[in-house]
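Moderator note: this is an archived Q&A kept for reference. The question asked for a predicted structure of one protein chain; the sequence and the answer are reproduced below.
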Amino acid sequence: MSFKTKESKLLLVLGAFFVANAIISEFIGVKIFTVEGTLGIKQFDISLLGVPNLSFNMSAGVLTWPLIFIMTDIINEYFGVRQVRFLSVLTAVLISYAFIIVGAAMHLTPSGFWVNQTIDGQQLNMNTAFAGIFGQGMWIIVGSIVAFLIGQIADVVIFHRIKKFTGDKALWLRATGSTLVSQFIDSFVVIFIAFYLNPQYQWSWQMVAAIGLVNYTYKFIVAVLMTPILYIVHGIIDNYLGRDLAQRMTKMAGRR
């Protein structure tokens, strides 16, 4: 397929943003931030399933994951299940490839002048900092990729199940509904693999469930708040494609 038609250009742009956001999310996800502190409010002190002092400490990867699920639903809407599955598998392969390259970079012998740097008045070992930021554990990498694939499969299946009942109406229901279910799965699968199965941590199931519920609460709120953006993107694409072409594509997507 040459990228001369509106359809092919649209798929290229959506696919590129989909893959880019997924890879970015994996690398920025090593930073844990406090939602309450970022918003300038008092930190919550939540107790769930016997786990005390819980608050909304989230991976920075949540900045881009909502965009990934919007891309998923848009691609699903216009191009169908097969394209989403293909892009999901491709993205998982590229994430794995990225971590292999980063792992190789970590084993390169650093130049002496680069190792010791002064940043903001603090003396830092740049090689140690590089390894600390990019050197995510294998269990976390595997958990993240598996959760991503399972979440994507769930998203596309639920999206089309809802669409069978709603037709072309209620975009918010199939898009937000499928995202909420897939985010629920993603929230628990990654924690279960990375911290419950991982012998280094061996979290209890109560810890996994409690932190998973806190994380999902945040993702639930964000998914609902992102619904207007979905309609804005949908409107931009319809305007770009033209009404007739957009309708033909959505009908064909439902058959794929």
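Archived answer notes: Residues 6-253 form one domain.
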